[in-house]
Write a structure and sequence with these properties.
With 348 residues, the chain is mainly α. The protein folds into 2 domains: 31-200 and 308-332, Citrate Synthase, domain 1 (Orthogonal Bundle); 206-302, Cytochrome p450-Terp, domain 2. 59% of the residues lie in helices and 2% in strands. It has helices at residues 34-40, 43-52, 58-71, 75-87, 90-101, 109-125, 140-145, 152-165, 172-182, 187-198, 206-215, 220-232, 252-262, 266-286, 292-302, 310-332; strands at residues 18-20, 27-29, 32-33. The protein has a 3-stranded antiparallel β-sheet with strand order 1-2-3. The model has no long low-confidence stretch (mean pLDDT 94).
Amino acid sequence: MDYSPGLRGVIAGETSISTVGKEGTSLRYRGYDAIKLTEEYTYENVASLILNDDLDSKNFKQSYSEYYNQLSGYNYLNNLIDKSKETLHPMDVLKVIVSFMGESSSENRTKQTTRLIAAVCYVIASYNDKSSSELDDEFLVASSLLPNDASREKLEALDDILILYAEHGFNASTFATRVTASTRSDLTSSIVSGIGTLKGELHGGANEKAVEMISQYSTVDEANDGVLKLLYEKKKIMGFGHGVYKVQDPRSPVVKNWVEVLSTTDEAKNKFEIAKKIDSIMDSEKNLFPNVDFYGGLLLHELGFLTELFTPIFVAGRTAGWAAHYFEQRQQDTLIRPAAKYIGPSER
């Protein structure tokens, strides 16, 4: 039996939810081009597509609104959020609160999923200085994450990145979700597995690191010298290249465009120019393209989110994808149990 470290290139299951990186560039959800979906639909439509193979968002919106609006009235839940935030990273707060939501297997898959997405978004919104209680009919989930006075451009930009975060094949967190599902465990436990896996720096957090790197430079010239020095020292530059895409990450241009649109202050414009310079250097020196995280972190920064909330926002978008994989795995009803290659004492 062949051994592939990290299961790279190994076909570990069958899915009809998405295809990633075919011809080196494309991303499709249920056969639909994900980039075109950002142009024509909202996150609620796309989440419905991923979950139920149906772009009609009526049931998703109705269920999400119902659950999100209920959460403010749960005193114990709100006290638990406040207490958890005192000592825990936002990703750990999400694990606590999603676990607290428990199981609701008597509900259909849309209700089960929107219940958990609402909880995730409610936790993220609790970090805002201003209220996020007023939901926008068109950009429902995005509006629950941003303050009530957010502009339409900001709502649309966040909606697009949620769509692009929604699903991405058998990545580490999705595979962890499917492994848990394969034991016939519940949806909540499986989503918590996904959150815990995404917390690891080799999977999530690249957008945070990218923003930190961009922010350490004051000028384009300083960024030019600094990045070349890092490359000379063989240091890793976060936010470039991808394990599946070989030509480009199709999500990156969408996010980059929104950064340009929202960069209206001198400070924001300067950060964007610095980012483009780093992008150019990585292309010329390493022939590497930016993935969604490089400009994605900058976009979330321009939307006003704390850096430590970048990965939780990823969770808000990806929970729909995780849930779809959970239900698909449960339907297939096959326990995931790979073999291991034993390494004897003389081989260590």
